[in-house]
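#lab-general

N.A. 3:47 PM
ok so I finally got the sequence cleaned up, no stray characters, all 107 residues accounted for. can someone with queue access submit it? mine expired

B.Y. 3:52 PM
send it over

N.A. 3:53 PM
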Amino acid sequence: LQRLTLHAADGSRRQRWQQPARLSITTSPPVLAVQATRYIETGSHGWQEQSTWSLGTTPLPKSELQAGAYVLRCSWPGYEERLVAVLLSRGSDRPLQIVLPKQGSTP
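B.Y. 4:20 PM
back already:
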């Protein structure tokens, strides 16, 4: 990262490198609790959980997150829980539409 300033003394390349991703979530039912878990690559050993936190309840307008790999846990009473894997890249805008089936409606 230090070498980026050699190519753009104004810091524009470093700023692009550190730019967050934006994630927006809409759901059916319209209100769900969403928890995010960030994973980091550990070389040959795969992926390791780094941190978990609540994003809140949907609808979630553009939340800024670091670029990387996430698993979103979506839940609401009376509905089946759903895990959604998401890979976010720097500066991306990622809209998600998540549908949860009613509890007991899936075999």
